[in-house]
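dumping these here so i dont lose them again. two proteins, back to back, each one seq then structure tokens. dont judge the mess
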Amino acid sequence: MPITSKHILISRQDNIGDVILTLPMAARLKQLNPGVRITLLCRAYAAEVVRYCNDIDDVVEIESIENDLVGYLKRSDIDTVILAQPDRALAIASFRAGIRHRIGNARQKIYQLIYCNRRVRFSKGLSEHHESQINFEFLRPYGDKHIPERNEIPSFYHFSIPHDEASSALLAPHAFNLILHTKSNGHGREWPIESYLALAQELRRQPGVHVWLTGSPKEGEWLRENAPELVGLPNVSNVCGTQTLARLTSFIHQADGLIASGTGPLHLSAAIGQRTLGLFPPTRPMHPGRWAAIGKRASNLCLAEAGCVGCSARDKITCDCMRAITPQAVIEVVRGWIEEKQAAGR
């Protein structure tokens, strides 16, 4: 029999991209349970962005409650916990706190079979669905077996991004502001830095176009040491490590486009409706079938078939499949964005 909920806790404590791709499920839960309250449990670094999502009523940072999960749940009025990511401690705490509905994927971990009473069963590795679609499997206990098509996913994103004056001051002098998030913190197969350099050099021929390099402080240092020619171009600014995640979100929102491989800011950019281009290898599990940028103005580039030996090795930073995505192919996308903005301004 389908369940109903009044207050749902969704747990997703991993990387920002994974969290972003969980949010469409929250929007659907609002449709299935009118008036429901949704709390998202995540890591502190991701909380800033989640608070911009209109479908999330409250955000709880795991660091603030991890030493007293049972106490937190007992003090709350939460009646449903969705383990959107395996979490042994939370599964046990939900059971001990007497949470009425405990939803988890029983195919992932044996403890979810034991402690979850509203079990779903699916394999991410065997699925042909995108990560954002796969998360809708957790809604089966509500009687909802519909998995939205990819072109439906953008309609489930609802954000209110505040305007940031500091970002405006940086972006204002330039006619078109393009963000390159060149690194992935090891979470995606990267487009070679030489290709980003060739792209930035070609963009020097485009009047008014300025390139912004974003990333962590460590990634900014890597760029200074390993890509001095890119960092030194007159049309390029390295702002890695200078922004909080909240400010980076506003910066992306107020810019004109973002290019990256499979990393959190790529999915963030696509979700908030920015022009976004994702660069991917064709090999599972890194392929765009699972991790493509999905948004109202998002697109992706990828070879039709794997073209290099050992492409599936997860420890590779880049590969020939990524090198085969030419700067010229990316330039054509950017030129289309520039023309689109110019047409809108006429």
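---- next one ----
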Amino acid sequence: MPILHSIIHRIDKASGDQPAVLKPASDETSPSDAQEGLLSRFNDAYHAKPKAWGHFGDTTDSDDSQEEKEGAPASLFARELIDYLDGRRDFPDVTRGVAERIVGLVNAHLSVTGHLLFVDFQHGDTRYLSLALLHHREGYGIDGSLDVVPAHQLNLAQMSLAARINLSQWRSDTPSRQYLSWTRDRGGKKLAEEFATLLGATEGVDATGETRTLLKAFSDYVEQEDYPEEQSREKTDTLLDYASEQARRGEPMTLEALSELLDEQQPKAFYDHIRNADYGLSPEIPPDKRTLSQFRRFTGRASGVSISFDSHLLGSSIEYDEDQDRLIIKKVPSGLRDQIKQRQN
């Protein structure tokens, strides 16, 4: 992942009611193996965080200039990025402006000191900009004399403010509505909302709802095609493997790519199923890891009875009567139903 530009500012906040103070870096950091290692670790930590996905909001203010009304984004942050990408402002200057505004969020919601990291980097053919407020924790290290010494460590698990922009996608001729993502911890809703406002971000897709709908569409598809149990399990594993890999990379799932993976002989079959049934899904869906983790199969075998079904069907197509200790199947698979009827005749 070649790093094109990187800079680290410091935000200090003393205990009590003292306001946070920005200590901006005078220049960019020099490229190094350690810096690339940090970026790799940061990306892994960021991909694992709960996030919102969206895009920069459009201009709506009637007081905007004519130039802004004709297509410039309403977001100050987005306009500063455009100036940077077009060569009108340098990287340290743009990041200092953003850092000054983030100080306000720290004063309002946080009580910890941190370093504000900005990285413009290339990954394959795609260019990204990531920013994050990195906190510290006390740890220990071993010095050259093999003595234990105190050491400050970056706490990447505690990432209260972070965002990533897919610059290539944003600046392409056909940008999506989810090239921008930002952290949204469940315990800091107000902070996440104000951070989105600072970025000028508009949520473009509900990752949880879209992932849930995708899984429903998949279950309907498997049931409609009436696949054998082993083949159904293989396709479920394929979906979950693909979704997990995309989540690990911090990239959305693509319906067409998923359809091709599910059936190499008929690569458009699942995609056509989604479109024909009108599930209202976006072409690209950010995977929600919590929803995916619940999409597993219950299996059991006893006294000549073997049962297996997707866990999300419990409570809808399948009910469990705890008092009677029995399962109620509301819709019997057609193949099983035919076998039972033949035996009864």
